[in-house]
Amino acid sequence: MKSEAIDSPVGLYKPHPRTLNWFGTSSLAMGGSNQSIFILAALLVGQGTISGQGTAAIILLMVGVVLGCLAVPGWIELLLMYPNRVGGIAATCAEAFRPYNPILANLAGICYWWGWVPTSGLCSLLAATAIHDWYLPQLPVVPTAIGFVLIFTAVNLVGVKWAARVAIPIATVSAILALISGLGPVLAGTVDWRQATNFHLTVPFEGWFGGVTSVMAGLFLIGFVAPAFETAACHVGEMINPQQSLPRTMLASAAMACLFFIPLPLIWLGVLGPEALSKDLAQVLGPTFAPVFGAAAKAIAVWFMLLNLILGGLQPLCGAPRTLSQISEDGLIPRIFASRARFTDAPWFATLFTSGFAIFFLLLGDPIWLIAATNFTYVFGGLVMPSLAVWLLRRDAPHATRLWRAPKGTIGLGLLAAAVWATTALLGFQQFGLSTVIIGLAFAYSGSLLYVWRRMEDRRVANLPFTFETLHLKLTGAMVLVLLLDGAGYYLAVSNLPQTGSPLLTILEDIFVVVAFLTVAVGLVLPGMIVFSAQEVSNAALRLSRSTVKDFAQAMKALGEGRLELAHAQVENQPIAVSSKDELGHMIVSFNELQTNIALAAHGLDAAREGLSQARTTITNTNAELAQKLEELRLSQERMKIAAESGQVAVWEIDLLTRKLIWDETCFSLYEAERERFDGTLGGWSELLHPDDRAANLQALDEAVSGAKKYDIEFRILRTDGEVRHIKSHARLMKDESGVPRRLIGISWDVTEQKKVEHAILAAKIAAEDASSAKSNFLANMSHEIRTPMNAIIGFSHLGTDETSPETLREFHKHINTASMALLGIIDDILDFSKIEADKLRLDPAPFRLQELIRDVSDSLTLSAEVKNLRLITHIAPEIPDDLVGDSMRLRQVLINLISNAIKFSKYGDVTLRVTRDSQDEQKVRVRFSVQDHGIGISEEQLGKLFEPFTQADDSITRQFGGTGLGLAISKRLVNMMGGDFEVESRLGEGSTFRFTVELPRAGSAGGEI
To answer: How many CA atoms lie within 13 A of 356 on its CB side?
Structure first.
């Protein structure tokens, strides 16, 4: 997998502790799923001069949550490509945008963060208002709201695990009350379905364009809450087993969002009417709880809203700070944002920073135009850019590791949803006022300032000067200037138009937002691509000049000076990836060709150097040969000496006149004798011999001197450390010109290791004889096994020739058939094993259904079990795919062998077959089979030779229960051929468990096609 950090030192940040399960994460995510109830009134009637959409807003809520759900599969895929990250979907876009512009990843994270900043303050403000109105009127609203924000901040600083513990009971009660609020009126029949389905769209001006404008503005505001269930994605790096937990969490959170967005508003409209829904829901939701809670319904409604408000205030301070922390670790914003608490791992600075802005917006009153401005950033950072990142990674990195792959077509659905959200931003965002437009764009571009700050910080840490003379800053600055000029033109135009609902004013606003959006996109993407390509070429050119070209120049100089060993250039040809087909792409192609040509020249230089080096070597060798021939005569004796020493052959001599023994150095080493202590006499030599071999050796020596026999003997010596070594010795008697013996010259060498090999061969011979005996016993056993069914066949066939009744004859035929099948099984075992021994047994893989195979095996053996009053039980794990590829006949053979043995050796209880999944990927499945019985069991000694051919674990067992003894040996070999192995657990008298695994391709996969 590629590195997840952008310009960040590898290993600088420690991984997050994994403490969250899917339920705790889903509970936190409900803080986003329930946001619909907080903006419902604003959608119905608006706020101040900003009009709402009327009851048609409920339809828009449904459309919004459906659009949010379309992107879920692609988001899960993207998040699980980098399962150690936190911060949500927007903080996981870095790798996709790296080749285009790192600021895009910064933009996605910062825009997403801005979208969640006002939420905590808004929920706290609403909660404080409810407490003031219903319970404690003496409490001031704003200070109480600030207190809520500070409490939520403290909980999150304690750690995400504690935040989840706080969220779980609140989310559980809130979800239950939401279900009651929806189901209660439906079951009680208090829903006016005519009123619930009577929708009206409020438009700012007449005509179809006014309707489109109203729909876009409403759907744009809904974009802030519709996919808010993705807050569950902020904690992937903190999840236990994210590959399993994240899909569950996302789907559970999406389901809760659907509950809050689809049935609840519809039922509330049918029970309360549009006028009531436009008010404070805490005051009007009582009738929806009345069918269940009666007189307490009003209080329940207040607490329902309070619980949702508390959860909505807690979650943003848990998820959004992790977005800042992650993009800081990626090198996109200042390092201080990556600071984590030592014991709780909480991003303390990012949490306090988010909390501070939430309080600031709270003090402003969190007006709807501010919500719309932050929602503009959220739509692009949290909705549009992540779906685009999923598509880019599918296109640019198709082979990257993906722990979860989105189903076919869902990536396109995510792009479709992103396009719709982008359209709502372009056509609906500006209708919340000029201040909303300007502030939203300022929020979007604020991340660029933080990115510049981080680059200055990184250069300061690296002791590099910071310069503004960069192509990136120039291009981006030019785009910002275009945006400012466009804004000035827009301001002049709208200042001279009536500020009431005017189609012309709306069109001008739309045009300005489109131009602003294109300017932001072009101002970030195009300069980023240009600078990225230019930096790639610049870095490659720098590498080329400092390595290959420099080495090439030095090598040419060395070649001219005759220093051939230095005439070598190291080639580092690293082609640059071409990401465009314009002038930049052509420049990169040309530079790659330049690198290739320089590499060819360097290789040519190496070839020339090798040629000159070979020529010089030839001349040198010729001169050396002349000197060598002169030296060979002088060194011949020395070579003989070296040869003897290297072969560990000791040379010795006995002067027959003086009876002195002369040794070379190897002799002293062979006997481990010290030159100073050895007196050179035959008596001193005989003391080194093994006492048992001394007399025979001296006699052989006397016979050699007398000429009676040649001296060719093997004997033992005893070294000073007590070690016994075997010596082989051979000698020749040398005579003078008159034929009188003068010397006995001999050689000796150590044959101890040879003796050890001989002993090993003898042991192997004994083992082979034992194996032959075992085979003989096996054949005797086979003769008995074959003779038994043959006698039955012959006997009953003979009886069948007599005059017998049809019923008796049928019984005879039944016995004959049983004996024949037993004989056929014995013959099949012998044939299979002979094929295995000859290495001619082959598997025949084909598609098959595993459950059908298990059912056939069970059906074929159930009767045998019932005859012995045993139960045959099978368990198949549901996660195992049914369509697999393999040799089903051989797999059936192994299973039947194991289950038959279990039935044979069991006298009571159950025989259980379990089939589970060991591991799985897209291509294959590793399946584990387990057969358990309550039979006689196997001793530890018997387990050691259980799978050996021709060897019975216990002959008494064979005599008592029958069988060839080949079944397990054949089964083990078949399982090995299918990529698995056996495991056996057994206790004598208590039963046995045989387990084996096989690796089976999945039908239809690349590895499973036949």
So the answer is: 6
